[in-house]
User: What shape does this take?
Amino acid sequence: MAGDPLVEVDGLVRYFDVSPPLLNRAVEGAGRRIVRAVDGVGFSIARGETFALVGESGCGKSTVARTIVGLHAPTAGAIRYRGTEIAGRSAGADVAALRQRMQMIFQDPYASLNPRWRVRDIVGEPIRHNSLLPDRASVAARVAELLVRVGLSPVDGEKYPHEFSGGQRQRISIARALAGEPEFVVCDEPTSALDVSVQAQILNLMKELQRALGLTYLFISHDLAVVYHISSRVAVMYLGRICELADTETLFGRPRHPYTRMLLDTIPDLEMGGRDREPVAGEVPSPINPPSGCAFHPRCPYADARCRTERPELKPAGGASVACHAVEEGRLG
Amino acid sequence: MSAPLLEVEDLRVEFPTRRGTLVAVDGVSFSIARGEVLGMVGESGAGKSLTGNAVIGLLEPPGRIAAGTVRLAGERIDGLPHEAIRRIRGRRIGAIFQDPLTSLNPLYTVGEQIVETVLTHLDVGARAARRRALELLGEVGIPAAAERIDHYPHQFSGGMRQRVVIALALCAEPELIIADEPTTALDVSIQAQIIRLLRRLSAERGASVLLITHDMGVIAETADRVAVMYAGRIAEIGPVRDVLKAPLHPYTRGLMDAIPAVGRDVDSLAQIDGAMPRLHEIPAGCAFHPRCPSAVAACGRDRPDLAPSGATEVACWLYRPEPAHGR
Amino acid sequence: MIALVIRRLLQSIVVMLAVALIGFTLFRYVGDPVAQMVGQETSLQERAELRERLGLNDAVAVQFGRYVGDIARGRFGISYAIDRPVADLIAERLPATLELSFVAALFALIAGIPMGVYTALHPTRLLTRVFLTISLIGISLPTFFIGILLILVFGVWLGLLPTFGRGAVVDLGLWTTGLLTASGWKSILMPAFTLGMFQLTLIMRLVRSEMLEVLRTDYIKFARARGLTDRAVNFGHALKNTLVPVITITGLQLGSIIAFAIITETVFQWPGMGLLFLQAIQFADIPVMASYLVLIALFFVVINLAVDILYHVVDPRLRIDRGVEAG
Amino acid sequence: MRTKLTLAALALALAATPADAKELRFAFQGDADSMDPYTLNETFTLGFLGNVYEGLIRRGPDLSIEPALAVRWQIVAPDRWRFHLRRGVKFHEGEDFTADDVLFSADRVRAKGSDLTTRLAGVKEIVKIDDHTVEFVTEAPNPILHVEWGSWGMMSKSWAEKHNAATPEAMADDQEKYTTRHANGTGPFRLVSREAGIKAVAVPNPHWWDNANKEHNLTKITFTPIASDATRVAALLSGQVDMAYPIPVQDIGRIDRNPGTRMLVGPELRTIFLGMDQFRDELLYSDVKGRNPFKDRRVREAVYRAIDIEAIRRKVMRDLSNPSAMMVGPGINGFSADFKRLSHDPEWAKELLAAAGYGKGFEVGMDCPNDRYVNDEAICQAVVSMLARIGIRVKLNAQPKAKFFPKILAPRVDTSFHLLGWTPGSFDSWNPLYNLHGCPRLGGAGPIWPEGARDRISQGKVNLGGYCNPKVDALAARILSETDKAERDRLIKEAWSMTISDIAYIPLHQQALAWGVREGVTVAQRPDNQFAWRHVRVK
Amino acid sequence: MTAIARLRRTIARVRDHDLWHDFTASRITVAAAAVTLAIVLAALFAPWITPQNPFDPAELDLLDAFTPPVWAEGGDWRFVLGTDDQGRDLYSAMLHGARISLLVGFASVLLAAAIGVTLGLVAGYSGGAVDATIMRIADIQISFPAILIALLIDGVARGVLPRDRHDELALYVLVFAIGASGWVQFARTVRGSTLVEKNREYVQAARVIGVRPAAIVLRHVLPNAMGPVLVIATIGLAVAILTEATLSFLGVGVPPTQPSLGTLIDIGQDFLFSGEWWIVVFPGVLLAALILAVNLLGDWLRDAFNPKLRKGVAR
Assistant: This one.
């Protein structure tokens, strides 16, 4: 881990109120319904590293990403960028300048580009918006440069998004992110909508850009193999909380949390090792009424009474941080 | 070995458009033995779903079967009259689609939908049909089936809904199940459950499965044999172990190398440059040749047919003498 | 469900208050109510007395409160032009308008839904084109023009149908009906056709587009894949799902039929509320105008409530609390 | 042959069956807006109620005055008229008709809310001599006191008081006045039911005093108001009504050609004319500031000469009008064929305008009803177009009578140029001379149309242009009280000469009455456009 | 790139566009477009291609009234399609009337679109109470048919406006009345599109860049919501023309001195029974043709813009 933390997330909470209208609650006696999308998440990302958040749908990983870039306001907690608070009420006036150094790449290459805009306008938008360059000519030159940088041709700038394939669109997305001259890029499942052959292209491009430009990535994915390939540190999320956080090697080499183990177990074995794995029973519970104590306990083979009542905190355990009573007590791991 | 249950020969699916006729599936041949699971894998737009739809006669107009034959237990089922193919669907061929969220009619309880299907195909009374529906729901692993049978689809979770869909596909004991991306919309932990369920049920009933997916992992877990599709054609078909461990076709090889794997530490992944051609610009000869690192002259000129190479069949000039003509 | 009804009722009250405010504003500020009520020879002092007696000097809020209170008790004031209580006028006119609207709506629904279904199921047939052409003409020909042409052909040239009025009506006490006599039925044919034609067109087009939409859904495709009969798919599944959105819009349309009756009633001299309203506009008879507005709003509110309840009955997604969250 | 005969007989029998009922179904463009005979001074309402209520006198088909509830009358002194009431007359609900009812009706017709107060204008006192004799005392001699009484129906005192309808005043609170839907007269027909704007039904009065001489053979009358011209015509053509009026002039030919229907066309007493603002110092709705062109007789003459009355007669009225040089037509006492219209001459008109200093024309707003007179709006449009040719730019404001009359009549008199029609209810020239030509001011002098007091104007009440000629006023006063017929006629002619030479108004024409009737129905068409059912026979 | 080259490229792009191909493939749509264009152009150039200005009373001669069309007995070559009751040349009156009808139609649709699109964008993008309020108002309004609202507004305007200005203001009142009753469709649709678009990732990308909500709504959301707006505007144009005609027929529209097509029909229907059919039939046919053509265009546009209806595998 090199350098000081670029991004620090501390006790981040984000709830969504999906309650039925007051009247229904009054008549039907129903309570408020709060989706606890993110329920106390903390981590820090060092300059130059790729930090991955991994988990199944509904675990809150995308909400974390969106909260960091400012698409959601946090319900509680702090997000510091280069030591400056950038979210919530305590955010200062200089946040806009800091935010500009933070860009995002989205999942759906079809939805993330405005279909009515030419590619040059899409890529040029961050430049124009932040007045990074003085005149139209220099913007055009910069856009052309960026297109080449991501493996497209400058003449592609005249085209509209629908004229490109999914992989090419994701390159355009990347070019747009680069146009803001970022140092930190949040990548929300950037390859999960792509075919594997194209996924490889994009992953390679991202790695190459990171090297060349010294970028820091927050990488969101549900695909453990991709995460293993690209990230240096990984946090596994389950129902709005981090259950394990470790270096990639540590996590994949010696998963400690039962959920992490279960996830790793689901990775298909392309080598055809012939092992017959018993899939975990049950399904992810609703984040509206998360189970008490450790949210994973209903599906956990190691759960005991404490797991059902007491919520485990993230604690260091052999080079990793794990939120598990069993691990802490030494029953496991 | 008994005669194959499903034989598809030289299947060709076309879409007439104003820019000319698009050939979405081109000369596809394969067969599935009784009790066998054939995986059909390929990237989006490869034509794998259309192949599945063509087999059960559910191509959406203006798509149509332009050539080729489809035989079920030796009997031709392509081009059958509307009513005849309808009787086969659900009864002899079951289908499972990708999105369990939208596959069920939201206005009917799951029980009603199962009973309706049973009554359509089997000569049983309403009570018997409901009993059968209950059994099926139990079999696909729906807890408290007796209560859940009267619930509406929106009251089920995604994984449970896909189980209901499987129950629906199986309710008339079909000989063949066409499963089109049955796990794509599901979370990884649920995926594994569904795959297992599908595998178990088909094995118990001796049903054959055509499993269509883009996920090599699913193929590796489930299929006996695999057909790799590219641009509407089969590039390679053979036993799963052979194809995955020792792919012959350069496309299959590239694909396997491009998949990141836990434990495989590489700085950059092998990548196939470019993208799959759109249907109106499929190149002549081997459709893969512009992206192929091993392409030879013949590749751009002549289209290779599938030819055996060991247990596998592969459509590639690398494993064939180049065609005689040439410059 | 109870919460829905309560909320709708609360909303309805707000709507009614808003409309009452408009009605009150019309009554109070468009023209001088006193000037409307008295003859030219009434002296200024008499006017002032009347003004005081009518409470026009009270605070506006008090006046509005009194207005709402009167309306709630069914007291709509006295018509300037006809010099009778508006409530009585409306009670006399209401049956005519409601019968006309009812027959027109019935006609529009009975003809419109099957036509829409037919055109959606058989998009290429000749009859579909005929229906679509009729529907285009239906929305393109002005209602009054259709009415005039009908009168010319069936009333004047052929002499088959009466050209105005309700024919013989039977007085049932609170209600007068023309639907119990032959001449009543003969009289209602042309007006109901004229009034229903436009609605028929709308309903047919709505059903058609909704049904086309539904026919493209996954669950219809899955129903076909299950081998259900065309009948079951088209009517059991597609039509039922089509009707859910159709109910809402049709409900609104039925409300608008009552208002559109203004034109039809004018052309056919149908002794209903629309005619009353138009006469009121010409005579600047504000109490009648305001009351008509309030009444139409009441219809809208009632119909909307009924539609909402119906909607909940038909669509289980709204009826039942989500038992399990979708994964 | 035999079969044919049988069939014909059968057809005849079938046709005769409904005819036994002898029902008269008729339609008019509007409704009788109240069944109270005093609330509305409007031709149709009065005409309709004239079948139910009767006055002391009544008018025959030729408008001649006949005895009705008064068997005879005499002028016992110049300011005192005595009426001998008919004995044995009963109201529909059985009350006896006596002098008390006359006194009650006289009070009621002058009470607040009555629109018919003019019926007893100038009557100072009414004296009951005995149960069947009353005397009317007037402020000044009045030779035509009773001429408008045909439309002043007698009401039963006890009935009105029983139903809390002792005055015609509208009830302010939310209650319907009993007389809005109920009537109780002595007339030949009894009101059975009325639904406002929908229909009214009446049946013959079996106890009518004149049943011995009755002309009609009706058993039932059904009236339907049909506002739309086309619908009304269609109803007649399709045989749904036996009689309909008015028939739009353009449809007259069609109804005449139609085998089952025919037209009754006759002159109406109403004169249609244009009025011009001659009292304001500045014209309303005009681009002329500080002056009023219409004050200049040359401008009025120019307007007169610009109008091609023949074109209007042929194209707008389809020959069903009688171009008029006077403000009264044939049939009105005082009409004279000696007066001739000024010639139609646009060039001359332009010269007149130029001479008056309006060579480039001017702009003026025109008020016009669009549902009152035969083709009223079309006439106005034609006038607009004709005036445009001499440079007068007219902005036409055509609106329904319900909005038109409040705008132009007192107290607003918000008009500088308008089209209006006038029927002298008394069929005598004094009425238009007083109402249309009398100087509209309070007392002998003072401003014309004084602001704030306009609703108290009596003389010249409808003189919306404010024409003012003291000589005409003096003549009118003499005409009112002159009892010598020859002298009176001479005075009338002298007055008309003055107003015509002043171009006080521009008379246009007397419009025609256009009633459509089913073949087999005979009616008597009265020139005042009132439909008396007692003359109807249905085959 | 020169302007001509750019133009050429644009034309090429249009000709290559799916919409253009859809359009040219549908003969009835092409015919509808041709009819619409012809009527619009004829109305636009009416003063130059008609022999008479029917709005200028000085050009009318009452003696020419009721001239039948030229092929009928008594026809006059000066009045090819005959004249009405005031001696107006019907051909001239129809084109000038179409001018008014189209003017009212276009202006009221523009007004409705301006109100509706703005409110729809605001409601959809802000959500919450603002959204709820706007949409409740829309719900209430939509339950009152346009004709009723227009009648009311017109009635109120008649009560409130100075009488002598009424005829001058009649057009504005009509436009306002029809426009104010037509905004709901726009608002609902735009709100719907906005709700979809605002959650699209390209909008979020813009938000990440820091683009302000107003700019996002105008530059990102609005262009993507314009397709349905165009469809509604087209169909709304037909409805507006029809509403104007109906109001004029009911006698609360434009004054007869400046007749629109609806007024002409209103005038003409008085003469239907008397055999002067041309006064009602020609304007009626022109009106019906115009509305039919516009409706056909609207139908086609709706289908063309509906991606669910678009077939084809290559995307």
